[in-house]
Sequence to fold (337 residues):
Amino acid sequence: MSIPLPPSVPLFDEQGALSREYLLHRGYCCENSCCNCPYDFGEPPSGCSDPYGAGEPLPNRDGPARIVSLCPSNTEILHALGLLPRVVGVDDWSDWPPEIGDLPRLGPELDIDMDRVEALHPDLVVASLSVPGMEKNVRRLQERGVPYIVLDPHSIGGIWESIRMVGRATRTAALAERLIADLHARIQQVRRKVAGLAHRPRLYWEWWPRPLFAPGGRNWLTPLSELVGGVNVTGGIDADAARPTHEEIIAADPEFILLVWTGVATGKVRPEVVRRRVGWDRIRAVCEGRIHVLEEGLFCRPSPRLVDGLERLVRLVHPGVFPDCQEAREPQRGGER
Fold:
């Protein structure tokens, strides 16, 4: 099932972003004030009933029975909502939870094999725009008439909206709201305790070592740093990503260096590379041995596991202060309906 777009509604604008007309037609909103946002300051659309088109019914009363995920964070959202038994295929990079190991793999997230997707006869594909280049997946799904939704969160609030969108599309909206409430309560637990701490440690997050690549102010790692009472030293750059110079990081003098090299297994991340950098021996984090390798899956994916990452981070930055903070636990989820 697929609801075709009218000829007057383009999927993309001239810059390759989802068009304003498309967002209005489908009732999508990422709540991030994107360049083509048809709503004021990211207000969610009114009357958005389902992901297939205004007023169109879902395939059956229980929601989609055959779901495909094209992105690791989407797979994790489906898992958190108890929908894993309905998932029939995933992208090559999905690695959580371990139970997905036997599912058919459909290619890397930037080069999905659409023939294999179509052969699985999905009644819902959960696509993503989290990485530049994923737009072609959306375009190909549309061309083939495969039913889909698109998630594109860039903030913690955007993750909540992604969970809600999946809940609406799968008839698990009540479970989605309970999941969000649970995640929000865990965040508030951290926020309340951090509020009483005077010191705000400076954190340097590193996505890539050469050239330096780090999260900017629009990425969720900046508010995540603030939630644990810290400051992202590259958070002052008004962008999703930053390319700081070595001199800028030395001048910022971070107290913690947090290595989350994208696409690199934690066992292959080399802290000695940081220690050998010219001038970095003056940085407090290097002098005091606070260079930490963190799991990319807990910090670089817009999924419920980001809250697991938050709880791990607060224990790292404030050891001993949060004995009752549950580290890296499973989010509450519902079973099959």
Remarks:
- Confidence is low (pLDDT under 50) at residues 1-5, 26-58, 327-337.
- The domain at 198-302 is CATH 3.40.50.1980 (Rossmann fold).
- Residues 173-194 form the longest helix (22 residues).
- The first strand starts at residue 67 and ends at 69.
